[in-house]
Amino acid sequence: MLLLNTKNPLLSEIKASIENIIRADNQTSRTLSLTDKLRHDILKTLITYSEQIPHPASGIANADDASSGTLIRWQVLAYVASIDLTIAKWFESHLDALSILYEVGYDKADQGLWAVWAAEGHPDPIRYEQGKVSGTKAWCSGASVVDHGLITYRNTDGHAQLLIVDMHQPGIESDNSEWQAVGMQATDTATIQFHEVTVSQVGAANIYLERAGFWHGAAGVAACWYGATAYLADYLISAYQQKPNDYKALYLGQVSTALAVTQQYFYHVADLIDSQPQLSHELAIRQLRSQVEKVARQVMEVVGQALGAAPFCRNAHFARLSADLPVFIRQSHGAFDLQKIGELSSVVANDLTDGQENIWQL
Predict the structure, then answer these.
(1) What are the domain boundaries of the chain?
(2) Which of 66, 78, 239, 270 could be a cystine partner for 3, CB 3.0 to 4.6 Å?
(3) Counting runs of H as helices and runs of E as strands, what totals does the chain give?
(4) Gene3D superfamilies from the entry (predicted)?
(5) CATH architecture under which domain 209-349 falls
């Protein structure tokens, strides 16, 4: 596992717990075939560690070894993603919800599985009045397994407002019939209709979008992409070690270089976030997400060329990661993200320090 850091004892403990569950099912992580039960058993175990996983921008998590709290969080997410991207999707959203509540000063989060559902644009938008909501939310992953949803709606001034909804109450209808994806098929992504459902309003208007943590959380999604990408590349290392040849070495050299550069950028951005937690670091995080998407696509193509059809057809774990990852990375916004990176780079270029000729100067 490329991201396992000996200075992250929490990750080591989580990994040992998950591997015990997998072994009890008479499987190994390398060839893991997931049932719904096994997937939920792993998720339940992960949830028990929620309070131990640092929030983004939490600074130094361990004074003994100066470990970055943000990096520790990303390492956990990357490890979970290397097992299964459906579990990673659910768990990342769960941790994000808890961090959002922490950032807005809400300290009464109930136990169970949380999710953030913030997609907008449905023709029947969420409407809030006197503690009740009606309307529709699309793109709700984990719709039938989540205990508490953190959802957004636009108030009469057009500002984004956060609401907490207990999913175990009447008036909630979930429809996943539109979810036709083969990759990420198991995420239980649905359209949810609310009919006069009781909710609690939390945080000030627009705080969801305006807080620095919005972008810190976006980097956590990239850590999931990276974890799955790194594990796919690890299959190439094993194949080369078992049967070396020059072509495999060439392909391995390509992906190893791309992953190493990306890994270092994760370390850099984690340090930025922990050292300046009050800033969003939007440009750096957009660049990180764009870089991870590019590397993910490169690794999927190159590893497939190097290994041929066999692992796609005979290894359940490899096949599932390969099918899920192209869907998951579409949480990136492609050309729109690159456009914003260009605009933000131009803004930064207006604030060059003395002696600096351009923003990329060494």
Answers:
(1) 9-103, 114-205, 209-349
(2) 78
(3) 11, 9
(4) Butyryl-CoA Dehydrogenase, subunit A, domain 2
(5) Up-down Bundle (1.20)
